[in-house]
TrEMBL record:
It comes from Vigna mungo (Black gram). It comes from the Eukaryota. Signal peptide: none annotated. The chain crosses the membrane at residues 12-34, 40-61. Belongs to the OB-RGRP/VPS55 family. This is Uncharacterized protein. Keywords: Membrane, Transmembrane, Transmembrane helix. InterPro entries: Vps55/LEPROT (IPR007262). It holds the Pfam family Vps55. GO terms for biological process: late endosome to vacuole transport via multivesicular body sorting pathway. Its main location: membrane. One of its GO terms (cellular component) is membrane.
Length: 104
């Protein structure tokens, strides 16, 4: 565990990472359960944002840059834009489906 960065060690020691993993997995389970109970699978489109949200950061930002730090690198700025757009999409997809009357 000594080869991990300091912020990761603190996160593992305090249990924040474990609680975050439990909350995210619980949210996904509840979303699947809601789709099964109402026999409507359109809300599962928002699960795509769970998968797509971290991808730009993993591919373009690298491990040295934080999402909150300022950078002159255009790829890092583009990554931050894609992450923000994906976050807005995660909120917009259920809103659009509700407005269209597809979900209850």
């Amino acid at each position: 565990m000594s080869d991990l960065p300091g912020y990761m060690r603190i996160c593992l020691i305090t249990g924040k990472l474990l609680s975050l993993a439990i909350l995210v997995s619980g949210g996904i389970v509840l979303q699947i359960l809601a789709c099964v109970l109402y026999n409507n699978w359109w809300p599962m489109l928002s699960v795509l944002t769970y998968v797509l949200l971290p991808m730009p950061l993993l591919f373009f930002a690298g491990s040295n840059d934080s999402i909150f730090s300022e950078s002159d690198n255009s790829w890092v700025n583009f990554t931050k834009f894609l992450t923000g757009a994906s976050t807005v999409g995660g909120i917009a997809i259920p809103s659009i489906l509700k407005h269209a009357g597809v979900i209850g």
